[in-house]
Amino acid sequence: MNRVGGKTVAVMALAVGLAGVLTLSGTRMAASQGTVLTAAKTDRVVPVTEPWSSFWNRVPKVSIPLSAQQVTPPMGGHRWTLEARAVQDGERLYIELEWADPTPNRSVAAPQLFTDAAAIEFPSVAATSVPALCMGDPNATVNIWQWKAAWQADVHRGFQGGVRHRYPNADVDGYPFHEDPAFSPGRYVDNPFSATDRTSPVDNLVAGGFGTLTADPAPVVQGWGAWRDGTWRVVFSRPLAVGREGNVELGPDDWTDVAFAVWDGAADERDGMKSVSSFVALDVSPKPMPWGPGFPYWPAPFFVFLALWAGFAWMVIGHLPGKGRT
Amino acid sequence: MIAREREPELQPAVEGSATVAWTPLAAVLTLLPVAALAELFLVRTFYRVGIYIPKEGPFRTIYRTLTGIGSFALNLSSVLALAALAMLVGRSWARGLRAAALALGAFTAVSLLLARAGPSEFGPTARAAFSLAVVVVAWPFVRGGAGWWHRVAVGGVAVSALLSSYAGLVGDAGRLVPAANGPGGAVGAQLVGEALVVATAFAFCTAWASSDGLRLRPLLVGLGPALALIVAWRANGAVTGILVLWTAGLRLYLPVWAYAGALWAFSSAAIGWLPRHGWRSAGLALLLVAGMALDSTYLQALALVALVLLTDGSALGGLPERPSQHGATIGSIAPRTGRLTDRADRRVGARA
Q1: What is the pTM of this model?
Q2: In a domain, A22, yes or no
């Protein structure tokens, strides 16, 4: 038989009462410590179309693990690491993504070709710990910005999807109905990959669950990517607030969840075949980004801190019960 | 072989007494896994899955009621976790184990501070305090005289917690002192930590079999959660994958059968230890709720309490007796043969 003393009852009553107060007041005793991508404020001109500018080298980066998308068909992707940087100038948010990719894939001009791409996902209503699963859900839509290398090639050099670009040495006598849209089925059904008048390499999308991905026709998101020595860098840029349904609205001191995805065209990745991250927090901070010389000797103090911690831990465990005393 | 590695009984036994008092610490440690598991199922699982179910008619009321209970369970669990740590601090201080008391107390204090001040300034402090407490709790046990597999398992948990904390510290460092080339290795630490967690589950199962004898019933019951994971994965990999990520913090980058096997081993150990080493079962339950990410002070507190329970409180002067299993811990239980049988369970039941 077990006996419950008055002290135990008092402690349990106190715990239950405190939990009740916390529940009723909407307060949590848990403090989140997840990965945070901070977009500090800068007064400088942000080089959106120069991802390899020295400007970006001085913006703090966060390493974000990607894993193969294995939750819904078609599955695929890699276990890569993405580096993310973010700044804001009070009006626009800029996010730069960097990842290793040995071969750039910039064409979708043939059925067997797939483009390199990268995407950023926000909950449409800026918040943390939102219950959005992958492509959001009907009660919590998501806003996705997707940059495609093939679309950038279209913007940069004109439409690259025609026969003439894919097979430059091909010769035809002529198409009698060249201007008839019925003979260009992609354009006829408004397939976005067949568009010939692209102005941005970034697609602005809204989704409320799998199979609901819809393009917002307003070109509010800008971006540019550049591949160098086996690494892609892509910059996304958008006004903090755009006032369009389904688009995330951000203020100069907002926190929101954000997730990332990368497609490798060389591995035939498209659609759900991609490398994805889980949600991390984006802090749109009003604090100015520290400029000047920066802090290039970071590893030294960090590892000094770790060494001090280890030394302290060693000292503490020296005072712990030893073998045989447990 | 298994019987030879059997370890000594670490929990105190009271002979000749028919009545055992519930101490406040024993009550808190008993209720904590219940509240934590309720939070895991009702907030992190049901709340998120329920979003996909049309909330009409009676389901609306059921959904609201259960998620309300889940919210309360989360708060109760967070209060109990900190209360348990505070009591453990007092207990170890009273027993002269000042270093352990200070390490655990530092983390408890920083957790309370963080709940008030937010993570931006004190995040690294909490991680450093948590890491120190992990070392302090695990070290005496890992180098102590317990069974080899048990020490390996506890060591694995401690190392994966330290790797997770290292990844968090890297993120904190870049945020607090912005610099272009901050410290790295965060992703590698997370990946190694996750692989270690999977391997550690098998070590716990072996530790249970070594200490209490291999029995069929826990192995069969343990199959349930593993099969549920596989069935859920086959039925709806999208929801299952994300739920595993958000409940246990695992990214599932290894083949899913590896996780299913680990869950089977983990569950078997948790069920198998229940009759004789109930605190260890509670520790495994808390470890499951704490998960791998450890990205909040609440999860860190759960992980610390779990480690204390899994190490039989060896760094803190032992654990209070579990009143509910008093009968099972009176005197000494005859060594078991380690045969694959359920008779051992029945014998313990008869003693209780």
Answers
A1: 0.72
A2: no
